[in-house]
Design goal:
Elements: H1 3-8, H2 12-38, H3 41-66, H4 82-110, H5 117-139, H6 150-187, H7 191-219, H8 225-236, E1 243-250, E2 258-264, H9 271-287, E3 292-298, H10 300-309, E4 316-317
Parallel strand pairs: 2-3
Antiparallel strand pairs: 1-2, 1-4
Length: about 325
């Protein structure tokens, strides 16, 4: 398959992300090369941050493609966890790089080395332009869709919007390097490069720590207690639900919440009445944030025997 035919097969969102990936790979190469030549640690920090964003953009492009793929017999949940797995690896890698940058910046503060201010400022200026253009490309994403397409495009909107904010933050960092290069030229203070590097490292480490925590929690199926309570209360507040137990909530990606529960109903209800109750509950749970709902109806007798054999049930009775 040629590059042209491959590009034609991409969706509009994927084309935008692909273009931004190419632009940012160019910036990574330029900033890394000039950073080594000029001795600017701030440029190298910005280059590595852009490299991390390239990886994040690749994940975004993959997510846009995998989102259309159906689950299979071997991948019954699809590839929904790929986003969090990639986020965890990406953020961990970036954190290690920023720790190295911090150590190197402190060493340069103690033992200053000359930095080429002009090369630093010009290169960061090019990066600023490219990052701004990238943000504009992603920011131009259409947010208005027809009613039929609204659900289909919703997740893609979130992915592209996240990529937009990545590029916007990169533009701000590049602007800071431009100003730092100007300060080195005007006042001859090479230590400003190390100070900027420490600031960048601190900001990026804080952001990476948040991503690591969120992605690790998702991979370990940690649930938000407030959301569990909110969804469980919807079940317990229904007049026909006698008891609830075996509550489970997982968040395999930034956009998905899978909720399951056993609900105890009166044994005199007909199958049609039970189906109506479940449909009402699914509707309310979906509006509360659950994207996939699995409810198992049962009688009080079955629930009692289930509680005795299941060690992680959390029963609630009206």
């Amino acid at each position: 398959m040629s590059i042209r035919s491959f590009y034609k097969n991409l969706t509009p969102d994927q084309r935008k992300v692909a273009l931004v990936i190419v632009l940012n790979i160019f910036i990574v190469i330029v900033e890394s090369t000039v950073g080594v030549i000029s001795g600017s640690l701030a440029l190298l920090s910005d280059a590595w941050h852009n490299l991390s964003d390239v990886l994040a953009l690749i994940v975004t492009a993959i997510a846009l493609g995998l989102g259309a793929r159906a689950a299979s017999s071997s991948m019954t949940y699809g590839y929904v966890r790929s986003e969090m797995m990639a986020t965890f690896i990406n953020a961990s890698f970036l954190s290690l790089l920023m720790i190295w940058v911090s150590v190197e910046a402190i060493d340069r503060l103690l033992h200053p080395i000359p930095v080429d201010g002009w090369l630093t400022m010009i290169t960061a200026g090019v990066a600023l332009i490219v990052n701004t253009v990238s943000a504009l490309i992603l920011g131009g994403h259409a947010h208005v869709h027809s009613h039929d397409d609204e659900e289909e495009h919703h997740h893609d909107d979130l992915n592209v919007r996240a990529a937009f904010w990545h590029m916007a933050s990169d533009a701000i960092l590049s602007l800071a390097v431009v100003l730092g290069g100007g300060a080195m030229i005007l006042w001859g203070i090479p230590w400003i490069d190390s100070v900027l590097s420490l600031i960048f490292a601190a900001v990026i480490l804080v952001a990476s720590a948040k991503l690591i925590t969120q992605s690790f929690s998702s991979l370990m199926d940690r649930a938000n207690p407030a959301m569990v309570t909110k969804l469980t209360n919807i079940l317990n507040n229904h007049p026909m639900v006698i008891q609830t137990h075996d509550i489970h909530l997982i968040k395999p990606s930034s956009k998905e919440r899978y909720f399951s529960a056993h609900i105890v109903l009166d044994e005199t209800l007909t199958l049609g009445e039970i189906e109506t109750i479940i449909e009402h509950l699914r509707h309310d749970l979906s509006h509360a944030g659950a994207t996939h709902v699995l409810l198992q109806p049962e009688t009080s007798k079955y629930a009692h025997s289930n509680e005795q054999c299941d060690g992680h049930i959390h029963p609630h009775t009206h």
